[in-house]
Protein: ATP-GRASP peptide maturase of grasp-with-spasm system
Organism: Dinghuibacter silviterrae
Amino acid sequence: MILILSSPTDHSTNRVSEWITRLGGHYIRLNDTLLYNADTPFDYGYRNGTEDVGLTVSGYSFRLSDIHIVWYRRWTSRDYLRGLHELTENKEWASNLVRHISVEIQTAGQFFLHLLRHKQWLDPPKATGAVRKHEVLTMAVEEGLLIPNTLVTNHRERAQSFLLENRRIVSKPLSEITFYNSDDFEFLCYTREIAEEDLLKLPAFFYPTLFQQLIERKLEIRTFYLDGECFSMAIFSGEGSKMDFRDLDMNRPVRMAPYRLPQPVEASIRRLMDRLGLSTGSLDLMLSTEGRLYFLEVNPVGQFGMTSYPCNYQLDKKIAEYLIAHDQ
């Protein structure tokens, strides 16, 4: 059986699940709300010195031995924190309570993942959680990929010098993109250009920040990697468009089309993904106006629908076929 660990709001998981059923496969899906959802009873642990897992989901029960492959998608919900701050008016106590419950839930999840450590994975949590931008950039260079000039600093003068050296620069998160939802708006963190006037507004020292050389782009390229194959899409964002194509301007639709990376670049990507221990992931690249192809980053659990649908790659079906083939 295939075990899918995901989030209830992940549309890509829904599509792959539908294909597994259509192709005759068998799966059980556990969303990240499992560990604090009173409607989903579960137990796992050690009985007589033997690891054992029992789960009942929507009336269906299974054991650890039933699972052959695990698809680790997006098992990182923090919805359980909602409302906890309101349990007490003491802000310090509320903060400690939230921190404690957060650690308890995360540890329970890690224990469950530990019990699945001998299974086949697409991809294992240790691999997906070990992807750090600065380390990936170093590996990318070692595997023959070109990257933009990069700086991490907490010093305004150093950032100003970096801007002078590269003429134009961007800022992006050191870790993952963050977002925040409220009743009135949604806040998203995008890659954006940083000008001299932006740097002048900063204090002399600030939190460590990642800056990169801004590449004058001809094309943006999103590549979905699956088991040694690269499925790439060209994004014709054009000059003057937003720095991050995810920051959509509905009045200026972006054209997307299938794209084939040069074979040496695909070979470098395969070596990089092998070193990272990843069988799947979404990679961002950029073709400069000078014809140079730059590697930017890889997201082990990146969305693939936005690459699949415009290019008719049917990636959800291919992932389902991969999981079914390894369900033995």
